[in-house]
C-alpha cells in the first residue's frame, strides 16, 4: 500500500482548486497566500488519510503491541513541507502553484511553526514520531494542545523580549477535533474508603478533548497519530450569572479549564514547581492512560494482558505520574488488587532520562501533591514503602524525601527500562545521579543514543546536498541512512568533493540572501560560517564562543594584513524568561555583534550574526549552510545533543568537547575529521576540586585576561560601561561551567580550524567523511533500538 499510487498531478490540481472553492470559499482571483496554503495543506492531508486509515486497520488486525509516547513537548515545526517530502509531492505541487503564479516556498513559509516544545527534548519527540511512522511501528504520541507554544523572541536594544506565540489564532489544517473522545480529569478534593475501595471525591474537574494529527512516514506507507489534549470545562457556562450581569463569573469555569492547555512552560532543563505545571502533567498523563485503557478494553477483556499489548514511554519525568495514575485506574476504576495493578503498570512503563543537571530533576512538595492529587499521594507513599522494604535501600533512595516527591526516583521505580540518551550520558547516570538505584535495580538502565530524522533534516532542508547524495550513492538513503557510508568510496573523486562543496556554497548564498533581507547585513558566502544554535544556557558555553570572537577581533585589529580566515559567527537561541544570566548572555552577544559589525577594520574578516526567534524553521535554513558546528558544552553536562547530529549529516565539521553524543559522532566520522578540545568529563570532575580554578586559568591565559579587561572597561557597552562587570566578576570567581579552564584549548583548536579551512578541497573531503559517518544518527536506528530493547514491538511494514 502506498499513498502515491493514485496521486496524479491532474487529480492534485483538481483537489487544490476544490478546497480553495469549497473549503476556503474563495475563487482564484481573490485567494490570498493563506488561502492557497490552506487549500494545499488540506489537499496534501487528504492524501495522508488513506495510509492513516490503513495503518489503523492493520494495527487492529495484527493484535500486536502498540507504543504510546507520552511527552509534555512535541517541537514539530512546519508540517506542510515535511508531508510533501514524505509523500514525494514536492515537485508536483511546485508545478501546480507555478502555473497559478504562486511560489511554493512562500506558501510553505506562511505556515506557523508548531512550537509545542522548548528544545532538544521536544524536537527528539517529533523526530521519534516520524521515525515510528517510517518504520511502521504502531504508535501514538500523546501531548498537550497548547494554545500558545514557545514564546516569540525579539531583541530590543540587544535584550530578549518575549512575545506570545499564537499558532492557533488561525485554523490548524493538520488537526482533527474529536469531540467524542473526551475524558474527565479530576483534581483536588479528598479520598474516602468504602467497601475496601478508595473513592476520590474531586473538587475540580476538566475535560480533556482529543485533537488528532496524522504523522506520515517516508513515502506515505504508514501514518500514526499524534493525539493532543485540549482542556475544556465540565460545567456549562452559567447563564443565570450572565443574565444577572456577572459576565466574568459566568465564564469562570471555562477560563479555569482553559488555562490548563493555554501555554507551554518555557523552561528547558529547569523545573519550575508551579501548581499549574503539575496539573498540566497530570492532565496529559490521565487523559492518555484513560484513552489507552479504553482502546485496550475495546479489544481485550483481560487487563493482565496489558503489558503484552501496551508499551508506554515516559519522555523524561514530566509524565511520571503515569505510574500512580495507571495503578489508580486499574484499582479504583477497574477493581484490580494492588499487587496486580502495580505489576501491570510496571510491565507497561518505561522512562527516558534526558539530563543529569540537578536543577532539572523534578520534585513536588508532598503538600502540593497531596492537595492537587490526594489519591496519587497515597499511592506514591505505598509504592515508596514497598520500594524501600523490598530493596532495603538507603534513605536517600526513597521516593519521598524531606517532604518532596522525587519524580526521577518515582519514574525509575515504576519503569521496566530506564534509558539514557547517549553512551556517555548513560554511563554517567549509572555512576552519579542513579548510582544507588542502579545498584538496587541492576540492568534496568540501558542506553539508546538519540537520533534525528534525515527526511526533515537532510532531504527537506538540504535539497542541494540530497541531490549530490542520490547522484553519488543512488536513491533510498533517506530510509537507510547507513548507506551514507557508501560515500567513502567516492572520497578520491574530485567531482564528488566539488559537488559537496558546491551544495554547501549554494546553501550559504541562500542564507546570506535571507540574512540580507531580514537583518540588512551583507554576508560573504566565502567566509567560514561558524554556527552555534541551541537554547542559551551557561553549560552550553555560548560565552566561550563570544570570548573567542573577541579574541579574534582583537587579533585581526592588531594585524589587519595578517593571513586571516574570514568568518561569520552565527548565534541562535532563546533563554528561559526567568533565567537572567542567560538573558545577559544574549544581551552581551548582541552588544559584541554591534561593536564588531561596525568596525571597518575587521569588516571583511569577521561578522557576528544573531537572528532573533530561533526555531525549527530557522534551524532548517542555518544547518545546511554551516561549515563549522559549535558543540562546546562542559563535558558531562549535555546529555546527548541532537543539533550536533543534524550538522554532521549536512556536512559541517564539528568543533567540540567529549560530551554527550559528540563522543559517538567523533567515533563514527573518525577522530581526524573532528576538531576536539577541552577536558573530559573525568577531568572536569577533578577540576571542580580546585577551588579557584577560574582565577588560576585566567592568570595562566593572556588572551583571556585581555578579553575580560576589554569587557570590564566597557568596550562592548560604551553607553553603560559597567553593564558586564558582574559577568567579568563571575568569570574570575565562579565560572561554574569551566569556560576559563577550557579556553586556551578552545582557542588553539579554533586556530587549527582556520588553517584547515584554507584548503577548500581538503575541507570538502572532511565534510564528505562526516556525512559518510553520520548514518548511525538517524532516529530510525534509535527507534529500532527502543523497539527491540524496550518495547518488544514489531514493525508492521
Ligand atoms: C535534553 C538534553 O539537554 C539534550 O542534550 C538532549 O539531546 C535532549 C534529548 O534527549 O534532551 N534534556 C533536556 S531537559 N532538554 C534537552 O534538550
Automatic annotation (TrEMBL):
InterPro entries: Glycg_phsphrylas (IPR011833), Glyco_trans_35 (IPR000811), Pyridoxal_P_attach_site (IPR035090). Its cofactor is pyridoxal 5'-phosphate. The keyword Transmembrane helix does not apply. It catalyses: [(1->4)-alpha-D-glucosyl](n) + phosphate = [(1->4)-alpha-D-glucosyl](n-1) + alpha-D-glucose 1-phosphate. Its EC number is 2.4.1.1. The keyword Cytoplasm does not apply. Keywords: Carbohydrate metabolism, Glycosyltransferase, Pyridoxal phosphate, Transferase. Coiled coil: none annotated. It comes from the Bacteria. Pfam families: Phosphorylase. NCBIfam families: P_ylase. Phosphorylase is an important allosteric enzyme in carbohydrate metabolism. Enzymes from different sources differ in their regulatory mechanisms and in their natural substrates. However, all known phosphorylases share catalytic and structural properties. Belongs to the glycogen phosphorylase family. This is Alpha-1,4 glucan phosphorylase. It comes from Celeribacter arenosi. The lineage of its organism: Bacteria, Pseudomonadati, Pseudomonadota, Alphaproteobacteria, Rhodobacterales.
